[in-house]
Amino acid sequence: MPKFRTLLVLAVLALVSTGLAVWSWQATHARLQAEGVGEPLLPGLAEKGRNAARIDIVMDDGKDRITLVRKGGEWFAGDAEYPADVGKIRQFLVSLVALRKVEP
User: Fold this and answer.
1) What is the CA angle 95-52-58, rounded to 5?
2) Shortest CA distance to 69 belongs to which of 88, 59, 56?
3) Which of 23, 30, 58, 104 gives 65 a disulfide partner, CB atoms 3.0 to 4.6 angstroms apart?
């Protein structure tokens, strides 16, 4: 009989801990959804990105930067207007559209 009682106590504890884990996960999941986690980091970029005419990339210190400018169907980098790879810029824009919020 003591083994059955021990097994019963362990089963109840397992059910309670599982229930608490599920409740905790649901509460966290609901909070993260309410705070926008999983939503696009740059909303509207998917629609506007096709018409992008300029991309400024600035380092965190603000000193180093590069500007990409579209003229016609071509992209150019910097003030000297070096030709830029259109495919890579398109891939960069697609990557930006795919960014999602991971923290509130």
Assistant:
1) 65
2) 56
3) 58
Q: Tens digit of pLDDT per residue, the chain (104 long)?
A: 678 888 888 988 999 899 888 888 777 776 666 667 778 888 888 888 788 899 999 988 888 889 999 998 899 998 888 999 989 998 998 899 999 887 76
At 12, list the tokens: 């109840």
Question: Which amino acid, residue 76?
Answer: F
Alpha-carbon distance 95 to 91, whole Å?
6
Stated as kind and residue range, the H or E segment containing 96 is: helix 86-98
Tell me the whole-structure pTM to 2 decimals. Answer: 0.58
Sign of the torsion formed by the C-alpha atoms of 37, 38, 39 and 40: positive
Which tokens in the block code for residue 48? 């506007």
The label of the residue with tokens 């509207």 reads 44
